[in-house]
What does this fold into?
Amino acid sequence: MTHYLEFEKPLAEIEGKAEELRAMARENNEMDVGKEAAALDRKASELLASLYQSLTPWRKCQVARHPERPHCKDYIEALFTEYTPLAGDRNFADDHAVMGGIARFNGRPVMVIGHEKGNDTKTRIERNFGMARPEGYRKAIRLMDMADRFGLPIISLVDTPGAYPGKGAEERGQSEAIARSTQKCLQVKVPVITVIIGEGGSGGAVAFATANRVLMLEHSIYSVISPEGCASILWKDSDKMREAAEALRLTAQDLTQLGVCDTVVAEPLGGAHRDPDAAIKSVGQTIAKILDGMAKTSPERLRDERREKFLAIGSKGLAA
Amino acid sequence: MNWITNYVRPKIGSLFSRRDVPDNLWTKCDECGTMLFHRELAENLNVCTNCGHHMAISPRERFIALFDGGKFTEVKVPEPIADPLHFRDSKKYTDRLKDARKTSGEREAMLVAEGEIGKTPIVAAAQDFGFMAGSMGMYVGNAIVAAAERAVVLKRPLILFSAAGGARMQEGILSLMQMPRTTVAVEMLKEAGLPYIVVLTHPTTGGVTASYAMLGDVQIAEPNALICFAGPRVIEQTIREKLPEGFQRAEYLLDHGMLDRVTPRGKMREELVQILRMLLRQPAAPAEDLVNKVEVPAESDAK
It folds into this structure.
């Protein structure tokens, strides 16, 4: 069963009716519902197109967090071969909110790192909903360091509500782990490519997203704070998340204007969850193109370019 | 009367007139409740004379006490574009900025200066919690980059005093981008072989802690400073239990291996001079250099 978002309710009705008709026809062979069902399908796809043509920022947040949206694990399984997960931070634990390891991308060895949210209750708990603890960032640091030593490009897939705000995480130095991870991103002399596949939640995202190129899926978001959090702090009312989502400029489109996002990867109509294979495929094609484009850049230049890029961010605001 | 009484006195009037309570010569310690006379409090660097509680101190007051003779030169910070997102919550961001400028008398939430401490040339940056909770936006990012660049040009160490509620939400993603930007600044110092010392003061939280404030060669905190990534309230809401006493305070972090030292404000200058001179492989500072003797400029007495 498709999971419909709140704003997709009218669509759910139409698609539900079409499905009902078809079910009736299956039970009763004499009924010919082809025409009616096709008309409903047409209506549904028109509605879908119009809904997704101009999603408000808050709706984009909902799409970005859609439970059926392809997650890191799906991308790794589809785009990489010989994926060999590498576990642990050599200090305390292995954080299941962060996946990572060596793998081949179009035959070429790379290091892939990403947040994984899980896709059912069991895996969501196991993955801590994609909220990493210090161990996750320290594992990432270890893997990035290894990638740097062996000259493997780093591909990071970002999808997190944020770093985990827990007691143990704080005790074990959540802030230091994030800071060091960002620092490691800025030190490596290999290409770093980040794809924000869903939610880019604050510092927990930056730790993996300090890249030469930052790609965002069309309906993904990247923000300093969640709209709910921002609403409760600035509006003193967490129900004002729509206004906050608007004000924060967290969409891929706004972030392109601000120079934070380099490339927007188009999603299938109705969002990545409606056709995960197509969404994953276009991400793969975009990464391949960008990697090829960086093939001739020297290691020092790759690092310096990354630093210059971040230093230059902020030189342009949004048009008035 | 010692040096600071002499020197700071003329500043007191201006300080109190633009801070919380005009006409009030007494400040109540928010820890022990003791009423503290303004002159005594300033003399003690805003540390309660009764219980040792460290109250906020503005970057300017801090620099006067830090630099030799209270003398320093401000380092110019490139002005970022104003209100890049045209942000408005219940109030316009530009109005919030205007208010903060009026009440603090400062341009923004960070002050950068160069000068000498114990005859050791340094660059220093201090964050101002009194200015929109010290929040890290583009200006603060520019200030840290400018401080690092200046330190590299002058081949001097950088001392950074952090204090912030986190990122400046009104600048959205551009405030978040100060995490990598300030980290680039830290890398500049590192590659130039220059010491970078962070003094964490109350409170240092969020994206600030998770970037430049945790990347010092030496990490020193003021006593009882709250230092965290996620604030205690957020954690309590997440885990639904009460947090232990002293959680995320400087001493707690020291115990958990996240800091090198917890040092009271009154001892900080001396300690910084000693650490810096050792890291720079310079001879020990003579005892008289460890005490800040401020020559009172004639005109400030006249004010």
Notes: Chain A has a mean pLDDT of 95.
